[in-house]
Every structure is written in structure tokens, then in C-alpha cells.
Amino acid sequence: GAVVSQHPSWVICKSGTSVKIECRSLDFQATTMFWYRQFPKQSLMLMATSNEGSKATYEQGVEKDKFLINHASLTLSTLTVTSAHPEDSSFYICSARDQGGINEKLFFGSGTQLSVL
Amino acid sequence: GEDVEQSLFLSVREGDSSVINCTYTDSSSTYLYWYKQEPGAGLQLLTYIFSNMDMKQDQRLTVLLNKKDKHLSLRIADTQTGDSAIYFCAESKGGYQKVTFGTGTKLQVIP
User: Fold this and answer.
1) What confidence tens digit (pLDDT) does each residue in B27-46 have?
2) Cβ neighbours of A21 in B, within 8 Å
3) Mutation for A interface: B34, B36, B99, most A CBs within 10 A
4) Which residue in A33, A46, A20, A18 sits closest to A73, CA to CA?
5) For residue A4, which residues of chain B lie inside 8 Å, CB to CB?
6) Which of A25, A56, A77, A79 could lock A30 by a disulfide, CB 3.0 to 4.6 Å apart?
């Protein structure tokens, strides 16, 4: 089946530094990728929708200057958490939709656990 | 806005049936999904149902939809230890629309 690779799996960083998370579709082209944030015992919260070659669409309440999204190719989207603070510590998950596919063809990465000290 | 709720935890014995319940608030939801998340892994789509259907069966999985009550359930027959995971209910208004997830139900299967 389709595979979405997310890297790194976990990262620990100091407060004030920036962290980049990569999401790659390995065997399909993804015109649309999604970035979610998941808190313990809570649901996945959609942060933004990333479309290849255009600006990301952010959900209400998500700071676009804080969470920079780049979707430069059909197989790669990146999320950069800028000037990270302890409250940014969370589990971040990306998903990618197979080009032309509907939500049945939505595949998820394995997530990135971010801990900000 | 959309709101999808689930109970947080369910424990069953191996071989028994598991029933995971979900309620949603948006009556315009047209697709309803069940995802499975194993530890340290991403979400895997198990099955989905259109809002004009009452039931969908796929091997050991049975999805029931009560659109009037906005209630969705997932029944796993002959539950195995490998079914232990977190199960997310989700909805969307269309095949290309954003997917809204529930809080997830952690299923523990006791050998």
C-alpha cells in the first residue's frame, strides 16, 4: 500500500530554536498534504492544509508565522516550528492524499514527537 | 462547528466482540470513517461509510450508522490481541473535504 514517511520520529530541542519536520509520499504523488497536532488523550487537530506549489491554508487559531509549511514538490511537505517553546511540545502527524484521490486515499505518517525544553 | 466524541477506553477479552461508539454533531457529514492507530505509528483507514447507508460489513468489521441520532459504531468480531490500538472515528462533508477526528478510543484486548 501507499506509504508516507515522516521524519524525524522524535526530536528534543531547546526553547527558542527551530525544528523542521519532513513528510514524504514514497510511492505516489500528493498534491495535498495535511498537518495535524495531537495532544495526549485528545483528538488530532488539523493545523493546516498544504497544497503543492501554493501557500498553505491554516486553520483558525494556528499561527502561520510560527508553523511554517512548505510543499515544494509533489512528494515532500515540511513543517517548521519556529522559535519553539515548551507549549509547542506535542505529537505532530502529517497525511497525504493520493493525487486525484478522495479521502479514502488519505495516508498518514507515523508522527513526530516534539519535546521543547 | 464539527464535534466528534468517543469514549476513551474499552477493554474486552480475546475472542469476544468489541463495540466502539462515536457521536458527531454535524448533520451535513457525508463520509464517516474509522481509523486505527497502533503505538508509534500513523493512522490506518479501516473502513468508511456514506451517510446514506445504515450498515457496512467488511470481514470482522461491521459499521452501523444511525443518522437520526448521529451515532456511529464499529463492531469487531472475534477480537484478537493484534486489534489492541486506538480507534478514531472521523467525519467529512465530502470526499475532498477536511477530515475531523474524534478523541480516539483505546481498545485493550485481554488474552
Assistant:
1) 888 889 999 998 877 888 89
2) none
3) B99
4) A33
5) 42
6) A25
